[in-house]
Specification:
Elements (H helix, E strand, L loop, with lengths): L4 E2 L2 H11 L3 H8 L3 H8 L5 E2 H11 L3 H6 L2 H11 L11 H10 L1 H30 L12 H10 L6 H14 L5 H13 L2 E5 L9 E4 L4 E5 L4 H16 L1 H11 L4 H20 L2 H10 L4 H8 L3 H8 L13 E6 L4 E6 L16 H4 L8 E6 L5 E10 L11 E9 L9 H4 L7 E2 L40
Parallel strand pairs: 3-5, 8-11
Antiparallel strand pairs: 1-2, 4-5, 6-7, 6-10, 8-9, 9-10
Helix pairs in contact: 2-3, 6-7, 6-8, 7-8, 9-14, 10-14, 11-12, 12-14, 13-14, 16-17
Length: 473
Amino acid sequence: MAEQKIFAGPRLRRVRNELGLTQTAMAEELGISPSYLNLIERNQRPLTVQLLIKLSSVYKLDLEELQGEATVTVTALKEVFTDPMLADELPGDQELIEVADAAPNAASGFIKLYRAYKESQSRLSDLSDLLASEGRSTSVSSARLPVDEVREAFEGRPNYFEKIEVAAEAFAADNISGDDPGSSLKDWLKREHGIVVRLLPVHTMPNWRRRFDRHSMRLFLSERLSPPDQLREMAVEASQLAMREIVQKELDDFGFATDEARRLGRFEIARYAAHALLMPYNAFQSAAVRARYDIDVLCSRFRVSWEQAANRLTMLQRPGAAAIPFFMLEIDNAGNRFRRAGARGFPHSRFGGACPKLNIHAAFSQPGQVFVEAVEMPDGAEFLTVSRTLEGPRGAFNERVRRTALMIGCDIGFKDDVVYGAAASAPGLPPMPIGPSCRLCERQACPARAEPPLTRPSGLDEMVTGLSAFDYQ
């Protein structure tokens, strides 16, 4: 049987120093030569299983601690080097292990310094939001990933592209049948570009939603996707072929700094164009008004998913034919944000969207159920919010379903024009008091508070404890 070898020289050296032993003394107690111990401490010889047992019996050491002491440090160092500021300095796993082993105190100090830096960046971001809500512009610069650059660009502008809307309406009128849009798109792809659409089983395409094979001119879709999602993937492909120049022009206008950001931006614009193809502006806007923005009715009428119809409602801002200015937010059950968008840009300064009391979080407790609620901000502004969970691609028996929640909202002044308004304004049902985020909210005695506010000093009192986990003056 092969003997397990462990290189842990720096850790053994620390043990020896903590015990106050010389190399000669420790070598004698372990029954090895001082020169061999010196090689072990310099990681030129391994710690064998027999030597580990000897260390345990002589010095009462925890072998698991000796073998895995650096694991947590290495994990934390990996987190540090994922920061975009250090993207060009990414070390390999072995290099991180060597750093954690050879200089554990320096590594721990480096990790603490990085976490302090991230905390300061978070505070600066929160402070910038606070100043922006008061009408004072700020420019807090920080290293960003391409996905952050793209999100900020799309979230801060109206979710409306006029040239795409016009082109999509013309394409839909000529090529898409309302009775069977899927067959219409397949026929167009085959007729105009020689592309054949094929649905593939999970075992054939386990890792992709869609894949276009340029050599065989086939568009492969995963059977994991629901019919509305399959339809959207075909529409994405069609929009990139039929509106290539328009999509490229809209992308160029953003001026993204990197190729990765441009790739992500192109996907977002193509996704927008796909929704415009499947739900042409005039037809969808008219249907939305007649149905009083009932998302379930719109799903059935246009053969799309709840998420697609809700997303489309945030795009209806054509001059002279604008609908209610909705905004939306999508998160997972860990609170990670996927998308924010709005007809006039996501109202971050007025609404925030990071309050734990929002019904988007409660939606995970009852998947598929629609939650309607009126909410009130600290400054008195009120919003109507509608939330529901979304199911991701279907998994196999042993896979956990990807589930997110989407919230769509609008100013409470539009409640009489929306089918959900009556449910949010029932007699005796006051608006839910929320805040933009815990760090920017000064509501007293909030049991849902997760962090203390930046704007108030701490108010710890040995004689009094408030309902919040963070008391302040």
